[in-house]
Design goal:
The chain is 43% helix and 21% strand. By secondary structure, it is an alpha/beta fold. It has 2 domains: 144 residues, Periplasmic binding protein-like II (D-Maltodextrin-Binding Protein, domain 2), CATH 3.40.190; 98 residues, Periplasmic binding protein-like II (D-Maltodextrin-Binding Protein, domain 2, 3-Layer(aba) Sandwich). The strands form 3 sheets. Strands 1, 4, 5, 6, 7 and 13 form a 6-stranded mixed beta sheet that branches. The protein has a 5-stranded mixed beta sheet with strand order 10-9-11-8-12. The protein has a two-stranded antiparallel sheet with strand order 2-3. Helix 6 links the parallel strand 9 and strand 10. Helix 3 packs across helix 9 and helix 3 packs across helix 10. The N and C termini lie far apart (85 Å). The N terminus is likely disordered.
Length: 282
């Protein structure tokens, strides 16, 4: 004899399916955050060659070598999560790809908003937006400064830029005429190429260029003051990046980032490490 299922039983079964399915989805959304809390440490990847955000103090050893405003933020986030902070230094392009692939938990490396980053990663609220930001521009060999005053003057120049950076995006989007573009893993390497005569100009964050030029008086590099890349306010802030879809982790980090912004503590770190970097000649 076949048992008949009443409407009430069918409703119960459908409710159980919905609830169990929802639990599975919730677990998936929270997976990375749960993993971090269970294992007891947060992996933070960064490219430690961008003072004052992240740089190396050669007088220290181990993880203590990695210092800067972003390193303080990484430690603060880990503290708020109640876990240990583990810094993973990588070149910039690997920082981006490793987070996209979920190899490490988050990236904090003076990252700015970019459309492709927003498509491929979860990006946090901005933790630092400089009200006096000078944006992004071009620095050239000092003996060429009078020859380079506009975007058109780049037509016969070899320009070097950090691969994967926001300045690369601006350069390729806004400059149509140049002799050649060369790509390097760090902006410091880009400046060295200009100093060594392997390139004529470097596309760079203006604030970083000023720090570099001030710390290296005889570097023979000057900022082109009459030109800046066009950028709206989206590109002015720095964000934390993580694998796409890690929404629970993003939500928790946004809470922490908002606390940091409201307290003004990041600006204190930034000012402190600007002075610190200067003592190291960075």
């Amino acid at each position: 004899m076949k048992k008949k299922w009443g409407i009430g039983w069918i409703a119960v079964i459908l409710t159980l399916v919905f609830v169990l399915g929802g639990c599975g989805e919730s677990k998936a959304e929270n997976q990375r955050l749960n993993e971090i809390l269970e294992r007891g440490y947060l992996t933070v990847t960064t490219e430690p060659y961008f003072a004052p955000n992240e740089f190396i103090d050669p007088s220290k050893e181990g993880d203590e070598r990695y210092v800067g405003a972003d390193i303080e933020l990484a430690k603060y986030i880990a503290d708020q999560l109640g876990v240990e902070c583990r810094i993973v230094p990588l070149d910039f392009t690997t920082v981006l790809s490793s987070v996209t692939e979920g190899k490490y938990d988050i990236a904090i490396s003076a990252l700015a908003y970019k459309p492709d980053r927003a498509e491929n990663m979860n990006l946090s609220n901005s933790y630092y937006t400089s009200e006096d930001s000078e944006g992004y521009g071009i620095a050239v060999r000092s003996d060429m400064i009078d020859q380079v005053q506009s975007i058109e003057d780049l037509a016969d120049l070899v320009i070097v830029v950090q691969q994967g950076s926001l300045q690369q995006y601006f350069l390729e989007e806004q400059v149509s005429a140049y002799k050649e573009i060369k790509y390097v893993s760090s902006t410091n390497d880009a400046f060295l190429m200009v100093q060594e005569g392997k390139a004529d100009a470097v596309a760079t964050a203006t604030s970083f260029a000023r720090l570099y030029i001030d710390a290296n008086e005889n570097c023979g590099i000057s900022m082109v003051e009459s030109f800046r890349f066009e950028a709206d306010d989206r590109y002015n802030g720095m964000v934390v990046a993580m694998k796409k879809g890690e929404d629970a982790l993003l939500s928790r980090i946004n809470e922490i980032v908002d606390e940091v912004v409201e307290s003004g503590i990041y600006q204190e770190w930034y000012d402190e490490y600007t002075e610190y970097a200067a003592t190291l000649g960075l």
